[in-house]
Write a structure and sequence with these properties.
The chain is of the alpha/beta class. 38% of the residues lie in helices and 20% in strands.
Length: 256
């Protein structure tokens, strides 16, 4: 493929989401406001590394199914890559790439010394047994051994994954390198080095943002009526914390 022949709205790879994706329009608007150098903008518009692996797994019924696993590493200028691992039927390389880019902005805006990454496998975790999910997770991790690590790229839970999957990832990585490496993932169980409060942390962030946004309008959480879209780890935690703060949660919906 000759890149110079591409039309303006074409991208050389599904992982190169600019200029078509909305996330890029936000980047361009911010770059204009900051008078960012065009060369820097070009670098930030594309992921630094894209990894797609084949994950052949024997299911409990003896059949073999092959999954596609992705890991997109957007930018590591501020530190090692950092981002979640998603298990959802709608996972695509383009989606993962956009989310990796957004992780870069989140870390940078908060002054956290990490870069942005994201990973995922297109599957519905509700359709597979615990043993099948463990085999999928361990094989996915084994394929990424050279691309993750405490000083390289640190996965975390996301949609469809939890501390359980992080424990499998940590164990698989540790076995491959020959010693325990708790820092290869975050969001793992407390019993193997996880952080207390981690499961409620993102939902707590939602509650704090809502509280501060209302405060700017001269309002309080108490007796506010709140609807929540998405009721996974984040939405359910946010609903609980908002309720405890006095809000009336009148509606919730599941993203899936």
């Amino acid at each position: 493929m000759v890149l110079s022949s591409l039309r303006p709205l074409e991208a050389p790879s599904p992982a190169h989401v600019c200029p078509a994706d909305q996330a890029c329009s936000y980047l361009e608007a911010a770059a204009k406001e900051l008078r960012l150098d065009q060369g820097v903008l070009s670098i930030l518009s594309s992921p630094r590394k894209v990894v797609t692996v084949s994950i052949p797994i024997k299911l409990d019924n003896g059949e073999v199914q092959v999954f596609a696993g992705h890991r997109v590493q957007h930018c590591d200028i501020l530190g090692p890559y950092k981002g979640g691992t998603r298990y959802h039927p709608a996972v695509t390389l383009q989606e993962v790439s956009v989310l990796a880019m957004l992780m870069t902005w989140k870390c940078a805006l908060l002054g956290i010394p990490y870069g942005g990454a994201k990973g995922g496998i297109a599957l519905d975790p509700n359709r597979y047994s615990v043993h099948e999910l463990e085999r999928i997770t361990r094989r996915y991790t084994s394929e990424l051994i050279k691309d993750i690590g405490p000083s390289v790229d640190i996965p975390a839970p996301d949609v469809g994954t939890s501390s359980r999957e992080m424990a499998w990832m940590m164990d698989t990585y540790s076995m491959n390198v020959g010693h325990a490496v708790p820092g290869v993932v975050t969001g793992k169980p407390i019993s193997i080095g996880g952080s207390r409060g981690r499961e409620m942390a993102t939902g707590r962030g939602v509650m704090i943002v809502v509280r501060e946004a209302l405060a700017r309008q001269g309002k309080a959480i108490a007796n506010s009526h709140i609807a929540i879209q998405g009721f996974g780890n984040v939405g359910s935690a946010a609903a609980l914390l908002l309720h405890k703060a006095g809000a009336k949660v009148i509606a919730v919906s599941r993203g899936s």
